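Sample A.
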Amino acid sequence: HYDLVVIGSGFGSAFFLHEFSRRRKARVLVLEWGRHNTHDWQLEHGSNSNVQHDSTYSSNCSKPWVYTIGLGGGTNCWFAQTPRFHPKDFRLKGLYGIGLDWPLSYDDLEPFYCMAEAIMSISGDPEMAAIMPRSRPFP
């Protein structure tokens, strides 16, 4: 018996499980389609998964999409770049007359950027705060 069953172990699950585990002690089961292949295995096979590439490719939309199967899901193929939107990105219509303004501001989201960066152990140059304001230093 489990208190929570999570399907997949990608980015979304990681954030959810991190927050859930802080709030209560529970028996959690994470179901994953793929295997947990070691880094050595991935280097030897030139792949992060033993699932055939053809079964991870979807072209039934306007843009083809490749996804990964395995422990960690898409975290196995991201580029470890986590840029924030610039404060002006939220006010494109008001500032430049194009697009739409967001119904929230950079300041509304900034604490959540900090939380996500802490969970992910994001690092960066502290001087970036002159361009992208921060309420806390990089973790």
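Sample B.
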Amino acid sequence: MRQVRQGTEMFRDLQQALNAGYAQFLGCVSGPQEGAMGVHYVNGALVDGEVDASRPEALIYEFKNGVARLVGVEFVVPAAAWDATHDGPPVLEGQTFQFNGAPNRYRLPAFYELHVWAWRDNPSGTFVDWNTRVSCDGM
């Protein structure tokens, strides 16, 4: 978690994330019971089949009163690139990434992902996709 926070500290300012190549991917993602995932900003240049705790492929923001707050990150690894050189799914900080096959609701090729709520506590767990303390109401 320390590496994730150190690597993303500067992106608490959304403008810094935009300057670094992150761009909004879809709107705010929420569920009726689960809470929300927030708004994801993805840096396509980092979606390369590698896992680096200090360089997440996606930053997750929650908007309240027009202000973006960094609440977490998501690591995204294309399955084809990873599977070509590894026997199992990626693992970060002892957490195994989840597999999302294709087709999926994001219209992406199959990928592995891991959410890390590095900047907002998640009562369900640090690595759980949905966070009941995140809301899309401020969008």
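B remarks: Strands lie at 23-31, 35-42, 58-64, 67-78, 91-92, 95-96, 98-100, 111-116. Residues 2-77 form one domain.
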